[in-house]
Design a protein that fits this description.
With 368 residues, the chain is an alpha/beta fold. The chain has one domain: 3-Layer(aba) Sandwich (Rossmann fold), CATH 3.40.50. Helix content is 43%, strand content 14%. It has 13 helices and 13 strands. β5, α7 and β6 form a beta-alpha-beta unit. The longest helix is centred in the first third of the chain and has 20 residues.
Length: 368
């Protein structure tokens, strides 16, 4: 992972990132730019207030931005035809479980039909050779058991967000198998990961942003579901997975005589099992890193369904792609909370913080 191939493939490559104004999309766009890619972003304008990563980290300097709604099929097809990207990273989504209860139709329309619009536009553009279609680890029919889910386990989802992502996987499967386009078409794979943390996420009802907001305002932290256990991973771990998958879909794996088409399908991206911690444990680690272990915590009310336990098996991604997670839980929390602490002290340094952590992660990968 992150060998010379990744630099050779993306340098000068025309890349389209949907959702580039969001948290993960912003980090991915900055990293692609650092790799020398010619990046175009398609998204709605950022909606996370004055602190949004897109503006604070100057993501616009790393790409050409186009504001549009992916639910508009005609607009999507026009922009893809105009840009003629070689690869598309599709991250645009309604990403919040809690919001999906309040806005189920918007969630379904964005995550299912919006994703279909991207794939249909790719099918009609001969220049598109690969699509990394980002869904979620919540696509599985979660039995709340201790075993990790593999890519061939049944899909499902009770809450609107999970259901929408599971349905988007089915749409992607159709495009993988029968709607590829003329000739060879494009190579398509879905990327399943979740419970991502890292600097610059200010989303509502997410644990780390909630912690930072409480610390910043000197108000009690409200925990809805402290016993929920998740496999926490840093945003750069997932972005590295997306980038590696993109390389394989474009370039194959010559060392193992694998062709690009051999990497179509679905891939889980998750941390080591040692990164699985309860919300309560994560909160304590975050407060310790911040230097305020005595910050008041209160119990909230869990009124909507949320899974208590979920983890995925990333063996396939590690074996076939050459990707693996690099950060321990302690490192994940240190990188995350130190980013926020430095940002709160000086919001003008967000761009520097993003660049520093990308560089540090690249060095970490090259050294092991």
């Amino acid at each position: 992972m992150l060998n010379n191939d990744i630099y050779a493939v993306y340098k000068g490559c025309k890349v389209l990132v949907t959702g580039h104004s969001g948290f993960k999309g912003g980090w991915l766009t900055a990293w692609l730019s650092k790799l020398g890619a010619n990046v175009t972003g398609v998204s709605l304008p950022p909606d996370q207030g004055i602190d949004n990563l897109y503006e604070r980290a100057h993501i616009a300097e790393h790409c050409q931005s186009h504001w549009l709604d992916i639910r508009d099929a005609e607009a999507v097809q026009k922009i893809v035809a105009k840009i003629q990207p070689k690869i598309i990273f599709h991250l645009a989504a309604q990403p919040l479980v809690q919001r999906s209860y309040a806005q189920p139709l918007e969630t379904f329309a964005t995550n299912i039909m919006g994703g279909a619009n991207i794939l249909e536009a790719a099918r009609k553009c001969e220049d598109v050779k690969a699509v990394v279609f980002v869904t979620s680890d919540k696509v599985y029919d979660n039995k709340e058991w201790c075993w990790a889910y593999r890519e061939n386990d049944p899909l499902g989802g009770l809450d609107p967000y999970s259901a929408s992502k599971s349905a988007a996987e089915m749409v992607a499967i159709s495009y993988m198998n029968v709607l590829k386009g003329d000739g060879a078409g494009f190579n398509l794979a879905t990327a399943r990961g979740g419970n991502v943390v890292g600097g610059g996420d200010w989303s509502e009802s997410r644990i780390v942003p909630d912690i930072v907001r409480a610390l910043r305002a000197d108000e009690p932290l409200i925990l809805r579901h402290p016993s929920a256990t998740r496999p926490w991973q840093h945003v750069l771990e997932l972005c590295a997975g997306y980038l590696t998958l993109g390389v394989r879909l474009l370039n194959g794996f010559p060392e193992y005589k694998k062709l690009p088409k051999d990497f179509t399908g679905s891939y889980n991206f998750g941390p080591e099992r040692s990164n699985e911690m309860s919300v309560h444990h994560l909160t304590q680690a975050a407060l310790k890193t911040w230097g305020n272990v005595d910050h008041p915590i209160q119990s909230g009310t869990l009124t909507l369904h949320e899974a208590t336990y979920l983890r995925v098996d990333s063996s396939k991604a590690q074996a076939e792609l050459g990707w693996r997670p690099r950060l321990t839980f302690e490192e994940t929390m240190s990188w995350t909370m130190n980013w926020y602490k430095r940002y709160v002290d000086n919001p003008l340094c967000a761009s520097i913080l993003v660049d520093e952590q990308i560089s540090a992660y690249e060095i970490l990968c090259k050294g092991t």
